Amino acid sequence: MNAPITQDVLTLPRKLPDSGRTNIIGLTRDQLWDALIAAGTPEKQAKMRVGQVWQWVYHWGVRDFAQMSNLAKDYRALLAEKFEIALPEIVTRQVSADGTRKYLVRIAGGHEVETVYIPEEGRGTLCVSSQVGCTLTCSFCHTGTQKLVRNLTAGEIVGQLMLARDDLGEWPLPGAPKDETRLVSNIVLMGMGEPLYNFDAVRDAMRVCMDNEGLSLSRRRITLSTSGVVPEIARTAEEIGCQLAVSFHATTDEVRNVLVPINRRWNIATLLDALRDYPRLSNSERITFEYVMLAGVNDSDEDAHRLVDLIRGIPAKINLIPFNEWPGAPYKRSSNNRIHAFADIIYKAGYASPIRTPRGEDIMAACGQLKSATERGRKSRAEIAAEAG
Ligand code: SAH
Ligand code: SF4
């Protein structure tokens, strides 16, 4: 593709990692309450102070305690002494010809993750990372070639939304009506990492994002994608209640064992059992089955028929993802004709089967292509196969 690409290297001031102050970003309301009390806030005021600070930070996007004008001056000074409001840092921003923005984000320790903003008609989706790298080794996924470096903290997960809003200029101006159209209206946990292997941080971060007095994203606009960590699925329903997407990708255990090796631990039947309960437990409408289209591997008519047989009875949408190729990938994308024939079978069986349009291809921003530039410890396919075996 010869589309114009812009790339800025942003030099934002770096926060000192060891300021000794507690970062407010990512604390739940309860944690903030505890922290404010530990810092000397009288207990009977703490609830009100949590509400005030919360609104400044998450509704107005304020980063400086001095601007929190409804707090007494000496209380602002106390907060500034004990706390900071620190986001991860955008290192580079690439803007695709189609408007997709890919941010390379540096977190504490010098590690990097990617966050992608995808503008669409009337909405905008932010694809957020939950880990640096991934412990899993799905054979079609670029992130899977990178070892897990560490889990992100709740603050680093919420921080990705906040820095995208900074970059898009999305914080409300004083007096602006609350119902303005949002640039980031949806979050998908589909960046780097397996969110259900970083459950607590992801849960706390999503609770911060959903809080009505702050970032205020409805749980219906948050989609968590998992490769199938079965024991955490019911917890996701109960403790987060967001929409669920599952990286299904195959209709037999034999093929899924290779594409999504976690299938050796929890196979298709076990996964489907957990998914069957999800809509009721989470009070959500339907589950998204993600299905990456790999030429000659999982894209036959028989696969399509098997897929609809397997998921029968589960309220579902099947999202067909044309494989996003990356250098050295061992698969090819299915042809357009094949993808449409596959979609047709699913559609005729009564399921929505949208084909995902690859976005930001010119900047390698598409699903599964995310891989941080600094963590180059790429494993060979042979090493991955050996580990999966
Ligand atoms: N670990 C989670 C979320 C991150 S991956 C999961 O596996 O679900 C987000 C989505 O991108 C998953 O559906 C994944 O299967 C898909 N994906 C990964 N690599 C891809 C590629 N090269 N082309 C298309 N989709 C890919
Ligand atoms: Fe990890 Fe998801 Fe990639 Fe599999 S598809 S390696 S679980 S990020």
User: Which molecules other than protein and nucleic acid are bound?
Assistant: S-adenosyl-L-homocysteine, iron/sulfur cluster
CATH topology of the largest domain: TIM Barrel
| Number of DSSP helical runs | 11
Largest sheet: 10 strands, mixed
Gyration radius, rounded: 22 Å
Q: What string, H for helix and E for strand, traces the elements in order?
A: EEHHHEEEEEEEHEHEHEHHEHEHH
**CATH class membership of the largest domain:** Alpha Beta
Strand-pairing-aware structural class: alpha/beta
Distance between the termini: 37 Å
Name the shape in a single word.
elongated
Average pLDDT confidence is 89
Using the 3D structure, state the CATH architecture of the largest domain: Alpha-Beta Barrel
The total tally of domains equals: 2
Please report the total strand number as a whole number.
14
CATH superfamily of the largest domain: Aldolase class I
Strand order of the largest sheet: 1-4-5-6-7-10-11-12-13-14
Low-pLDDT residue spans: 1-5, 7-16, 373-389
User: Share of helix among residues?
Assistant: 25-40%
Domain Radical SAM core: 120-362
Enzyme class: transferase
Organism: Paracoccus benzoatiresistens
Subcellular location: Cytoplasm
Write a short abstract of this structure.
This is Dual-specificity RNA methyltransferase RlmN. The chain has 11 helices and 14 strands.
Question: Could you please describe the fold and organization of this structure?
Answer:
- There is one protein chain.
- The protein has 389 residues and is α/β, with parallel strands linked by helices.
- The protein has two domains: 22-84, DNA polymerase, domain 1; 89-388, TIM Barrel.
- It contains eleven helices and 14 strands.
- It has helices at residues 29-38, 43-59, 73-82, 154-168, 199-210, 233-239, 253-259, 268-282, 301-311, 336-348, 381-388; strands at residues 6-9, 22-23, 83-84, 89-95, 101-106, 112-120, 123-127, 131-132, 150-151, 186-189, 222-226, 243-247, 287-293, 316-322.
- The strands form three sheets. It has a ten-stranded mixed sheet with strand order 1-4-5-6-7-10-11-12-13-14. Strands 2-3 form a two-stranded parallel ribbon.
- Strand 6 and strand 7 (123-127) form a beta hairpin.
- Helix 4 crosses helix 5 (199-210) and helix 6 packs parallel to helix 8.
- The radius of gyration is 22 Å and the shape is elongated.
- The model is unreliable at 1-5, 7-16 and 373-389 (pLDDT under 50).
- Residues 140-142, 190, 194, 225-227, 247, 290, 292, 321, 323-324, 367-369 line the site of S-adenosyl-L-homocysteine.
